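ok so i was messing around last nite and threw this chain in just to see what happens. nothing serious, just curious
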Amino acid sequence: MNLKNIHNVYFVGIGGIGMSAIARYFAANGKNVAGYDKTPSQITTELEDLRVEIHFEDSLKSIPISFLNKEKTLVVYTPAIPKNHVELNYFLDHNFTVLKRSEILGKITETTFCLGVAGTHGKTTTSSILGHIMAQVKATSFLGGIAENYNSNLILGEDKVSVVEADEFDRSFLRLSPNIACVTSMDADHLDIYEKPEALQESFREFANKVSETLIVAKGLPLNGLTYAIDEEADYKAFNLKIKNGKYIFDVKTPSSEIKNIEFNLPGQHNVMNALAALAMANVYGVSLENIKQSLATFKGVKRRFSYKIKTENFVLIDDYAHHPTEINAVQNSVREMYPEEKVLVVFQPHLFSRTRDFIDDFAEALSKFDEVLLLDIYPARELPISGVDSEWLLSKIDCKQKKMTQKNDLVKDIKNSSAKVLTMLGAGDVGVMVNEVTQELLKTMKNEV
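result:
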């Protein structure tokens, strides 16, 4: 398939974070782009501003007629789409060229020098940092989050170098052909797909074997490659970490040199690890350490990755995508590092029944480290309920004196009843929408109290 011969690209699930980056790419390259999504969102609104036609009803009548020409139309879909989807089944039954998101990303990047960022945690932030660094060599970056510097999940450059987030879900990253890659972590996840942690690890080994030039791995992972770590011997080592005026300052030793006083604005040592992985990849590619240092100092972060929604002397609201116990622990550690004396309230919305079941004790242990817990019902995403698996079960296992179930309609009231000065709202479901409503209500109350 020659992408140059494709006139129309139709997306089934166009509002997804990974799908929308590819839709932006094709729109920027002069293709006619349209698609379906389940619900309107800020992402779909921004795509519509780019003259992308989007509808929200699964109906053949809603598909623009020009996109029903199978010779001129490529169809891209996300694995999150249900198997009984009317539009997707029409395209499949009528022999359109239909590709998964991962397949088309592989096609777009196979002729580029590709830098792939893989890992069960940290890949969105790491790839966004790397994309920001590599913008100076005009790389095009496909991200799994909205980079604050660009207010986009696509950093559009040229077609010679690409940065991609290599997603392990559904073994998507095995469609890529990376020249340089990193693996940030290999914790058990997506057991609804892999069933056993060993199968997930084997998939990462397959990904590592696809890397044509250099693999870079967090020290301690069971893969062969250049290593990176904080305060321990590795090929890329960050040391002399200090916090000054709310930012990190640290030095880095590389295999051949050292650079001092790197400034980085994101809180949490896990983010220093993410910055170090991006530094190593860019350095291996050939970007100078001095230029990397300048880019790290200007990186603003990724939306829903320890994003401050409210930050005053008396109250802080932090929004984060964390939906795995390891990620919840990382947020908790960062909050304690930044606000060691304050009471911390967490609002958590579990994501997937299967993930809640598979990691129930780990979730309970992570959430127990907060001073107060408000727990929402499980966000089902692509799943049907599993008998006996619900948020009440998780709540019963949390060892915290101040804990309770809450509902969307009661959330603002329950937050206001807390004396916590620091609020974190965590999860990968529609809590990401709720946080905006909560922010507006709390700001309104704070304004009235002045």
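not much to say yet. The two ends are 62 Å apart (CA to CA).
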